[in-house]
Amino acid sequence: MLEARQVTRLFGQKAAVDHVSFRVEKPAFIGIIGRSGAGKSTFLRMMNRLTDATSGELLFEGRNILSLQGKSMRDWQGQCAMIFQQFNLVPRADVVSNVLHGTLARRGTLSTMFGFWPDDDTLKALAILDRLGIAEQAAKRAEALSGGQQQRVAIARALMQDPKIILADEPIASLDPMNAQLVMDTLRRIHDEDRRLIIANLHTLDTARRYCDRVIGMRDGRVVFDGTPDQLTTGVARDIYGADASFNESATSTSIDGLGRKGDDAYALAMLN
């Protein structure tokens, strides 16, 4: 289904993604974890062709999507939906219009500029919003919604594309715990019900263990772990986050030496203890 072969992205002499290889045989919910700067976001952006690869191949159903250009690349981006940490909605547009933007890859620019949406598309957008539990927000401006609601609108926009793959780049990093759970529950349900391949960059090991079928750990641009959530031991966590990481019993007071921050990475390690 999907195969990465030695995928590499250089920025000058620095390898942000360094010869990453793995295979996905069937639709799964895959989490990519690692400390900030591990290359997680760069890799997803290469998959969606928002960033070019320096070398390597990324095959989807036998086609190297890294070599696509022009219309073929735009068609691929329609099949490979992207969900961002900061939602990337149009704040002053209403919710249903934001969802309908998921059809942009197959619609003309002029009709979109003037808000001319086919009735069938509008009904589909409303049905998706209803499925995600936010149909009552359809007429509101996106900026009036909570963070968790905005992220579900972004998920609805992705579903409007009817994609083969959904990529989620730290989809819960800006959310409080309750909304984070709602968003992750939504993504997991989409995978279970639609059998879509979902690849999500995640900060916390606890989230990866709860929601993912498979976890890929990255460090300094390389894959250092590829296995099941049950295999995410404390030793594996140190391989991913660095041998200099230290953590306490309490997740609320943990800090990691060498990372220079409290927060998700620290919490992730503490949850294993």
UniProtKB/TrEMBL annotation:
<dbReference type="InterPro" id="IPR050086">
    <property type="entry name" value="MetN_ABC_transporter-like"/>
</dbReference>
<dbReference type="InterPro" id="IPR012693">
    <property type="entry name" value="ABC_transpr_PhnC"/>
</dbReference>
<dbReference type="InterPro" id="IPR003439">
    <property type="entry name" value="ABC_transporter-like_ATP-bd"/>
</dbReference>
<feature type="domain" description="ABC transporter">
    <location>
        <begin position="2"/>
        <end position="245"/>
    </location>
</feature>
<keyword id="KW-0547">Nucleotide-binding</keyword>
<keyword id="KW-1003">Cell membrane</keyword>
<dbReference type="InterPro" id="IPR003593">
    <property type="entry name" value="AAA+_ATPase"/>
</dbReference>
<keyword id="KW-0813">Transport</keyword>
<dbReference type="InterPro" id="IPR017871">
    <property type="entry name" value="ABC_transporter-like_CS"/>
</dbReference>
<keyword id="KW-1278">Translocase</keyword>
<dbReference type="GO" id="GO:0005524">
    <property type="term" value="F:ATP binding"/>
</dbReference>
<keyword id="KW-0067">ATP-binding</keyword>
<protein>
    <submittedName>
        <fullName>Phosphonate ABC transporter ATP-binding protein</fullName>
    </submittedName>
</protein>
<dbReference type="InterPro" id="IPR027417">
    <property type="entry name" value="P-loop_NTPase"/>
</dbReference>
<keyword id="KW-0472">Membrane</keyword>
<dbReference type="Pfam" id="PF00005">
    <property type="entry name" value="ABC_tran"/>
</dbReference>
